[in-house]
Inverse folding.
């Protein structure tokens, strides 16, 4: 496994009462930007807030630790992220302004400063309050993620680590529902064009919770369909409140990705549009060739948005996505929810078991009592209020906001 593999870790605004960190980077100039403060740090490096000396524009500077900046492989991967982002200018992808090395060889990426929260933080916060994202929010955030990924794929880039930690949600008054997603962390993105270097034997790139069957198999000829599979896992989790596959070990989880059929959304949430179940079913197909493209997914999500807003008008009685029927899987057992089993070996701390437990949707009664530390349990019936509008404390302006943003690829964060 690649012990130096960067992962995303959210970085919240520091405590106002916290003592300032004695850091030689604070006060230093990087081009026209002056480093103001440290936002957070991880195993790979540190993220700072900076401000343009004339425009007063805020920016984030992600710096590799100096010793890691001397490692050519790590340096290549770090700059590969900058190149991937710079090739994919889109309103739903974080913007970079510059990258390079300082006079002491420290590698840096200067990028847009974001304020908001990761999609993972949003889901976990709502789960603790026994609330859901709501179908309109899932469709809109999913549409934005799909649009960004469609552009990335059109540039012959595969992200290979799409997951809720890498999706940042920021307030935006002109965006639908008052929020915009920003795609982060291209640290293991693969360019399909040009010479392809083989990875080290046995190296697995990605996060097992969202890893495609071909990634689990260790295949080297990965294409854009690996991102489609990861996106399908995300959509299932956003809707149901838990992952489709639950296991005690990394090996068991990867076997499920490769061989076990996922549960149907309609078995979990019988009130959702059948077309959404069909879409996610195709996205989670074991064979990459059976999955839709990102462009197809975006078109289907847009049609579903119209269908939810005006039932029957968008579909005209026709299916939005061709389904591939599959037998209903047996009920999942009440097995303990494992933390990300590869977290330490791929560069970041795993998430707590409790934060990923199955949580009923807003206003629903659970089918059976399941302790929060367990990952099993059937999903409850969908509350109509969660389908018809923004659920619970969420509002059309975006709901509660988090702190200052995550720019990660740095491993677990401490402040």
């Amino acid at each position: 496994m690649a012990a130096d593999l960067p992962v995303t870790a959210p970085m919240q605004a520091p405590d106002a009462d916290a003592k300032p960190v004695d850091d030689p980077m604070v006060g230093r100039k990087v081009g026209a930007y002056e480093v103001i403060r440290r936002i957070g740090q991880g195993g790979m490096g540190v993220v700072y807030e900076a401000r343009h000396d004339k425009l007063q524009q805020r920016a984030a500077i992600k710096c590799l630790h100096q010793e890691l900046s001397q490692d050519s492989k790590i340096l290549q991967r770090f700059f590969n992220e900058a190149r991937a982002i710079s090739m994919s200018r889109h309103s739903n992808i974080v913007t970079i302004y510059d990258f390079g090395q300082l006079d002491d060889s420290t590698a840096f990426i200067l990028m847009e400063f974001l304020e908001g929260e990761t999609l993972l933080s949003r889901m976990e916060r709502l789960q603790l309050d026994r609330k859901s994202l709501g179908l309109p929010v899932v469709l809109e955030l999913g549409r934005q993620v799909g649009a960004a990924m469609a552009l990335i794929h059109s540039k012959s880039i595969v992200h290979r680590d799409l997951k809720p930690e890498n999706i940042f949600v920021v307030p935006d008054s002109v965006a639908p529902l008052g929020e915009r997603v920003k795609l982060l962390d291209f640290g293991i993105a693969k360019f399909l064009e040009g010479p392809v270097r083989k990875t080290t034997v046995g190296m697995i790139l990605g996060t097992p919770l969202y890893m495609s069957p071909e990634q689990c198999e260790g295949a080297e000829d990965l294409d854009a369909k690996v991102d489609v599979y990861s996106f399908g896992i995300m959509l299932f989790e956003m809707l149901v409140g838990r992952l489709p596959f639950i296991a005690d070990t990394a090996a068991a989880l990867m076997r499920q990705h490769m061989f076990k059929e996922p549960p149907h959304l309609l078995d979990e949430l019988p009130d959702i549009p059948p077309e959404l179940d069909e879409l996610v079913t195709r996205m989670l197909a074991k064979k990459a060739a059976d999955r839709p493209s990102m462009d197809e997914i975006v078109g289907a999500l847009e049609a579903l948005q119209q269908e939810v807003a005006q039932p029957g008008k968008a579909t005209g009685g026709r299916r939005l996505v061709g389904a591939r029927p599959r037998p209903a899987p047996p009920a999942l057992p009440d097995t303990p929810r494992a933390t990300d089993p590869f977290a330490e070996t791929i560069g970041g701390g795993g998430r707590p078991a409790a934060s990923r437990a199955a949580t009923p949707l807003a206003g629903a009664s659970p089918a059976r009592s399941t302790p929060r530390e367990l990952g099993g349990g059937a999903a409850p019936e969908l509350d109509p209020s969660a389908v018809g509008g923004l659920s619970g404390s969420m509002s059309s302006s975006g709901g509660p906001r988090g702190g200052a943003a995550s720019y990660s690829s740095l491993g677990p964060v401490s402040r």
Summary: The chain has a mean pLDDT of 73. The first strand starts at residue 29 and ends at 30. The radius of gyration is 21 Å.
